[in-house]
Amino acid sequence: MNIILLSGGSGKRLWPLSNDVRSKQFIKLFKTDDQQYISMVQRIYQQIRSVDPTASITIATAKSQVSSIRNQLGNQVNICVEPCRRDTFPAIALASSYLHDNKEIKKNEPIVVCPVDPYVETSYFHALKQLDALAEQSRANLTLMGIEPTYPSEKYGYILPETSDPVSKVHTFKEKPDLLSAQAYIQKGALWNGGVFAFRLGYLLEKAHELIAFTDYCDLYQNYSSLPKISFDYAVVEKETKIQVMRFSGEWKDLGTWNTLTEVMTEPVVGKAILNENCKNVHVVNELDVPVLCMGLKNIVVSASPEGILVSDKEQSSYIKPFVDQFSQTVRFAEKSWGSFKVIDVGENSITIKVTLNPGHQMNYHSHERRDEVWTVISGTGKAILDEKVQPIQPGSVITMPAGCRHTVIARTELQMIEVQMGKDIRIDDKQKHSLTCTE
Amino acid sequence: MNIILLSGGSGKRLWPLSNDVRSKQFIKLFKTDDQQYISMVQRIYQQIRSVDPTASITIATAKSQVSSIRNQLGNQVNICVEPCRRDTFPAIALASSYLHDNKEIKKNEPIVVCPVDPYVETSYFHALKQLDALAEQSRANLTLMGIEPTYPSEKYGYILPETSDPVSKVHTFKEKPDLLSAQAYIQKGALWNGGVFAFRLGYLLEKAHELIAFTDYCDLYQNYSSLPKISFDYAVVEKETKIQVMRFSGEWKDLGTWNTLTEVMTEPVVGKAILNENCKNVHVVNELDVPVLCMGLKNIVVSASPEGILVSDKEQSSYIKPFVDQFSQTVRFAEKSWGSFKVIDVGENSITIKVTLNPGHQMNYHSHERRDEVWTVISGTGKAILDEKVQPIQPGSVITMPAGCRHTVIARTELQMIEVQMGKDIRIDDKQKHSLTCTE
Fold first, then answer.
1. Do B260 and B127 contact (CB within 8 A), yes or no?
2. How far apart are the first and last CA of chain B?
3. Are A370 and A426 within 8 A, CB to CB?
4. Among A421, A416, A429, which residue's Cα sits nearest to residue A402?
5. Half-sphere exposure of B123 (CA within 13 A, CB side)
6. d(C-alpha B281, C-alpha B293), whole Å
7. Which of the two residues, A176 and A285, has the higher pLDDT score?
8. Is the peptide bond before B16 cis (omega within 30 degrees of 0)?
9. Distance CA A369, CA A385 (A)
10. What pLDDT, on the 0 to 100 scale, is given for residue B116?
11. CB of A331 closer than 8 Å to CB of A21
12. Which pLDDT value is given to residue A440?
């Protein structure tokens, strides 16, 4: 199975755990059998692998998510990077031409496109395999997955099939209806549109060339920013006549808010927390290293991260976005391809961060124009390179880097450092990358 | 007026704002007219000064509180340091001999003893002055303040006066009665014991010598740890026959729990926080530099500090102590005579703290046996002294101190540094003080 996972979203609705660089799919909330916490993207990746060990998985995503994906899924997964956000039609077109031109997938091969963030069980991936087979065998150009609705939601699009058969031609679509229309649609047998599409690669490339003038993947990539924002549903699905839908009745949840997210947490607490015996229906997700104490709370979610603290009635947790918009957008923690960092102090003309490099990894060789930096190594070993000079480092090593000094660290074991940045206007975009020749 | 303020308490009930070194009286929660936040001890000190500008104020307290008091009240206030905790009778005896031997207060002068933490208005201090006058003029040996009770509390001791006159002889005492007895006592005209005592200094010294074998202040100080723990009420008050009580009917509150504390907060929020319009009777005290967002909460107090986060129903906030006892007792922030510090990261073999020195102040000249330290100056100027060598420091200065290196910093302007401590067993008691001759 060739599968494209669409990984989008900026994730203010799960503040303070999601931020501008960590979308909800990267939050580690799901406990595995071996007591590890994994994220949505790790969970779905493992689920696909368990159902189809040889699946070719490609993640279509923005540049800003590449580090998190590499951190959580490693270097094996294919990533098709969108140079900027242009909605789902350009994203699927780009990923399709990437698969054709770079991965040499043939035009008659079926492709399944699926969002990265539904909360589902294994049955969902068996259904994706059926969808894959349908796309290959049937005469329809497009095969969708229709989720059997559990309530008349106003949040989803609806697909009305012609029949109640497991696979049926599509009669009509209805975008996010109001409550009454949703009820009426469900009575007529409508299904939720789960955002899953299966097609033969050639079909999609044909559609892409119809709507976008481009020669190949590289050309499309280079001109990506000039494309209009348009959804796949609007550009392709709603105009296609040879289209069918396959019913899916297994568990399917959209974990977009704290309220829905806490429903699927296996335990009430992730992180350090104590709930007294008078707490009822309380969930705590605490990413800080100090404890949360909850006394006598009812129907409340508490979440704490280096970016802030949320204490919300569960019902009202769906409405946090406009309030979160008021907070400063400084990112205070992030996972990178090489490890992670966490802001531990913000001064007037300084920022102090804790940097963790994974064994064998290194950060980009870079310099800053408007800030000096000091590293104090607190654990692990490796080497630092400053202006092409290599030096071994270990706990207690102190490295000072005036503005302009090119620098990087290569971790031998897991390596942690306290980095003090000092300057008048410390900005994340003050970073010049350099190529590095020597590493010995 | 000579006044001894008894400053005690360790303060688990106001966790996470109080800890082993910061008792509740040092938490800055009270907004002044010029929009500054002050603590209970600062508030009571200012109130005494406003009523009696020439009052001689002595604070009787433990060693662990001296830094906080110097930080908040400066160097002018007298501090009588108890070498260890021995309850109120030894504390008052020590402070009394301190006043007689070190401050040359005469034996016929009146002394007023008062706890440092009642939440009161100016009228209370006018009452203290009356108490002072009564102690000087009357034939009673002891004059107490009786607070007119507002409800049958089981938390306080009761004083039953012989008459309902403003000043009356005491009939009997009753320690913390049950609810029914409290109701009965109040019906008989009993008053709460507010822990305020006035006496002539000579009387107290006589009592002290009766019960403790000592020659003078120094002798008492040196043998302090051998004294039994005994309260002033038990040792003196309940045995005295020439004793009177003065009624006080002004505002008097004991802010021992979050519930009572939030009642006197002038605004619902101290620190960074947003409450949505569906919050009712919610208070937030946030000492972190990231925001707290509250949505749809009712009757809840939220408090956050570098030591943890409390989210509690207000009623239940009185019962946090046993839960707080389960948390590690590592102090993560403290005010010192020279400034303050805050733990910003704890690693396996490292602790990183942010140190702030007030202008003109310096820390003790000291060394550590089992840890190395690195300072990175992030703001301000001053000088560092390492093994008797003086060097100027400024933002960007990096100072490395291997174990054994004697070191201090003298701040010229307000000075902030990131201090990384590294070692296998970092302990607060691994600190050797040294005397310093050179500072130039």
1. no
2. 43
3. yes
4. A421
5. 9
6. 15
7. A285
8. yes
9. 18
10. 93
11. yes
12. 55
Nearest to B320 among A293, A309, A320 (CB): A293
Q: pLDDT grade, residue A228 (50/70/90)?
A: very high
Which two structure tokens, joined as six digits, stand for A325?
């918009």
Closest chain A C-alpha to B356 CA, distance in angstroms: 11
Task: Please tell me what DSSP assigns to residue A237.
Answer: G
CA distance A70 to A65: 9
Is the minimum CB–CB distance between B135 and chain A shorter than 8 Å? Answer: no
Tokens coding B399? 């100072």
pLDDT (tens digit per residue) in B317-369? 989 999 998 887 678 998 999 999 999 999 999 999 999 999 999 999 999 99
B411 and B385 Cβ atoms separated by less than 8 Å: no
Q: Cβ contacts of residue B218 below 8 Å, gap of 6+?
A: B101
Between CA A333 and CA A17 the distance in angstroms is: 10
* pLDDT at position B254: 86
DSSP class of A272: S
CA torsion sign for B139, B141, B146, B152 is negative
Count of other CB atoms within 10 angstroms of residue A252:
20
Identity of the amino acid at A53: P
With tokens 């008097």, the residue in question is: B252
Residue with tokens 């990178």: A336
> DSSP string spanning A342-383?
EEEEE-SSEEEEEEEEPTT-BPPPEE-SS-EEEEEEEE--EE
Q: What CA–CA distance (Å, rounded) separates A315 from A272? A: 24
**CA A431 from chain center: how many Å?**
24
Q: For chain B, what's the residue count? A: 440
Classify residue B369 by burial, with Cβ atoms within 10 Å: 0-12, 13-18, 19+.
exposed
Lookup: tokens for B284: 């937030």
Q: Which residue has the tokens 């496109």?
A: A113
Summarised one tens digit per residue, pLDDT across range B186-226 is: 999 999 999 999 999 999 999 999 999 999 999 999 999 99
Q: Using 50, 70 and 90 to split pLDDT, how confident is the model at A411?
A: very high
Cis peptide leading into B149, omega within 30 of 0?
A: no
A125, A248 in Cβ contact below 8 A?
no
CA-to-CA separations, B345 to A286, A308, A411, B368, in angstroms, rounded: 16, 16, 21, 19
Other Cβ atoms within 10 Å of B179 Cβ, number:
11
pLDDT band of residue B22 (cuts 50, 70, 90) is confident
User: Checking DSSP bridges between strand B350-357 and strand B366-367, what pairing results, if any?
Assistant: unpaired
Whole-angstrom distance, CA of residue A95 vs CA of residue A59: 8
- pLDDT(A165) > 90: yes
User: Cα–Cα distance between B295 and A12 in angstroms, integer?
Assistant: 15
Residues of A in contact with B378 (CB under 8 A): 347, 349-350, 352, 420, 422
Q: Which two tokens stand for residue B25?
A: 């009286």
The H or E element that residue A112 is part of is strand A110-115
Spatial distance between the Cα atoms of A132 and A143, rounded to a whole number of angstroms: 9
According to DSSP, the residues that pair with A433 across neighbouring strands are A366
Do the Cβ atoms of B309 and A290 come within 8 Å?
yes
Q: Is A353 an interface residue toward B (CB < 8 Å)?
A: no
Q: Are A100 and A205 in contact (CB under 8 A)?
A: yes
In whole angstroms, give the CA distance from residue B67 to residue B71. Answer: 6
User: Distances in Å between the alpha carbon of A236 and those of A230, B65, B336, B379?
Assistant: 10, 72, 67, 58
Contacts of A293 in chain B (CB under 8 A): 15-16, 308-312, 320, 323-324, 327
Phi, psi of B243 (to 5 degrees): -135, 140
Longest dimension (CA), chain B: 72
Contact A111, A128 (CB under 8 A): no
Window A:365-384, CB contacts with B under 8 Å: 372, 374, 376, 378-379
Q: Count CB-CB contacts under 10 A for residue A221.
A: 18
